[in-house]
Write a structure and sequence with these properties.
The protein is of the alpha/beta class. It is built from 18 helices and eleven strands. The chain starts with 11 loop residues before the first helix and ends with a helix. The structure holds adenosine-5'-triphosphate and magnesium ion.
């Protein structure tokens, strides 16, 4: 669908409108009030599989079904949902798709940062109107949480632990009472059924603004893992690279073997040992996630299509791998050099890649 569209990143409710409509029409599951789909249909939307009303339901999140079920069930309870994990484990991805399936829209969103203020979360004022007429409902500018509460929909808060603690504290009473009070108007906005919050928080930001215990208690936390096996990770990468959002994926040949090589390099550098468990290696500080493997290989597809022979091979891998692995030269350069010398140089079947990476000559330099 996106191929015909001029929009770089379409909203999920528009991108998957056919799937969502078909699921809704044929939905016979128990549905919490104001949900767009029943939890069972939300699960099918996220995990994919099967044909409903002639529409193929594509997988969105590939991995543990139990984790997705827990996340969906949380949204029907009084608690909010917190997705945590290292960067690139599809926290935002899952949050966005859950929001599309549970509420039928993804528009209530806060991109958390140290600049996030109370009015970004709750409400602000149109100052021209405020000065001219004093506090009034017209002068009130509702924030995303406010709008989601009125609509009985999901509000996403990205990168919760990058929001200053003082601002995070606003969520404490909001999540218990499910009400926003506007004292100037003596107004109480009570959340409609269906309202809930999905927050994401990156492990790497743990130290920025740690969540208070009180806030943690209001969330049910789901930890997003890395894929268990090489095969599973290769399946995710391969599926994502075949999707319509990757241009030229039909014109450029990318074999499973090349995907496996990138994923294996990442998994080995991530776990600190070779896949067969025989050799210990040092790990990089940069997180080599599935998401990183997807973008590295997407880059390879463009390189092969624009400048190569339309086939991704050692040349493209060698051009993109070092930049994706060595993000922080002080910490990542040594593990990468060691990996090339101790692992790649000895892996006979990967000689082409080792040579393209500069091989022995570069090692000597
Ligand atoms: N298990 C998976 N199933 C489907 N897609 C995945 C999976 N793991 C990673 N991805 C892909 O990785 C990409 C990046 O994921 P996303 O941006 O959601 O990561 P994140 O955990 O929010 O990272 P950050 O902490 O940096 O914000 C998405 O395009 C997503 O499709
Ligand atoms: Mg994210």
């Amino acid at each position: 669908m996106t191929k015909e569209s001029q929009i770089l990143r379409e909203r999920k409710e528009n991108l998957y409108k056919d799937e969502l409509d078909a699921l809704q029409k044929n939905d016979k599951g128990l549905k919490p009030e104001n949900w767009y789909l029943s939890p069972r249909a939300v699960l099918q939307f996220i995990k994919g599989g099967g044909e409903i009303g002639g529409v193929n339901i594509t997988p969105k999140y590939i991995g543990n079904s139990h984790l997705v079920e827990t996340a969906i069930a949380t949204l029907a309870t009084d608690r909010a949902l917190l997705l945590t994990g290292v960067p690139g484990t599809a926290k935002s991805w899952l949050a966005e798709h859950l929001s599309a399936a549970v509420s039928g829209k993804t528009s209530h969103l806060i991109q958390g940062s140290s600049a996030t203020a109370e009015e970004d979360l709750l409400f602000g004022w149109n100052y021209a109107s405020l000065i001219a007429k004093g506090p009034s409902e017209e002068a009130l500018v509702p924030g995303p949480v406010y709008r989601a509460m009125e609509a009985g929909a999901i509000c996403r808060i990205e990168e919760l632990s990058r929001i200053p603690a003082m601002i995070q504290d606003n969520l404490l009473s909001l999540l218990s009472e499910k009400v926003i009070v506007v004292p100037e108007l003596q107004l109480e906005v009570r959340a409609r059924k269906g309202f809930n919050i999905i927050a994401t928080s990156n492990d790497k930001d743990k130290g920025t603004y740690p969540l208070s215990d009180a806030l943690k208690r209001r969330f049910n936390t789901v930890r997003m893992p890395f894929p268990d096996t090489l095969e599973e990770e290769v399946d995710i990468v391969s599926f994502k690279l075949q999707s319509d959002t990757v241009q030229f994926s039909d014109e450029v040949e990318l074999s499973r073997k090349e995907i496996e090589r990138v994923v294996q390099v990442y998994r080995e550098l991530r776990s600190g040992q070779t896949l067969d468990g025989k050799q210990k290696i040092s790990t990089t500080e940069s997180v080599l996630s599935t998401a990183e493997a997807i973008s590295t290989l997407e880059h390879c597809i463009y390189m092969a299509g624009f400048f190569g022979n339309s086939k991704v091979g050692a040349r493209e891998l060698a051009a993109t791998l070092p930049g994706s692995i060595v993000k922080n030269p002080d910490k990542d350069e040594k593990p990468w050099m060691d990996y090339k010398r101790l692992v790649l140089a000895k892996r006979e079947e990967w000689k082409d890649l080792y040579d393209e990476l500069g091989g022995d000559e570069r090692m000597k330099a």
